[in-house]
Amino acid sequence: MEVHIFNTMDYEEFVRKFGNVVERCPMIAAAVWSDRPFASLEALESTFGDFIDLLLPSGKEGILRCHPDLAGRDLVLGALTSESRSEQSQAGMTTLTLAQRSQLSELNTSYKNRFHFPFVICARMNDTDTIIEQMTIRIHHSLERELQAGIGEVKKICRLRLLDIFNQVAPSTKL
Fold first, then answer.
1. To which H or E segment does residue 144 belong?
2. What three-state secondary structure class fits 151?
3. Which residues are catalytic?
4. pLDDT digits over 62-94, tens only?
5. Which of 39, 44, 77, 106 is the most buried (most CB within 10 A)?
């Protein structure tokens, strides 16, 4: 995949374009910019992933804390990023039944009380029932296992957001 256009972006443009690839973490895009040029979209994705992998556990927890609750207060108040709003909508978070909304609210609270960061899952790759099922399972993980699972989901989200950006900038480029 041709990424020449991204390699020629100045720092400010790059951070504007990629600053929310990892939810509300523009400093990651700022750090990734320094590793240009990227040979491919996969290399760009790998650089984001490598940066995250090198963080201390507290840094990884910080990344997870930047994510909103699923079907939570930010969704109700309209305070989600455009990416999160679209992703939660695709997963059915905007059309929950009253029972599902109540169940998710309880699960979100219990999860955050246990881990001190919100539950993160790649909403675009899941539906409402799967999200509830995964929350119910993952709440029983150890902190270390859940941190690893959450960061794995962040990387899935990152990949899809990078593909979205690439397709917006270079829609005629073939995969």
1. helix 143-169
2. helix
3. 67
4. 999 999 999 999 999 999 999 999 999 999 999
5. 44
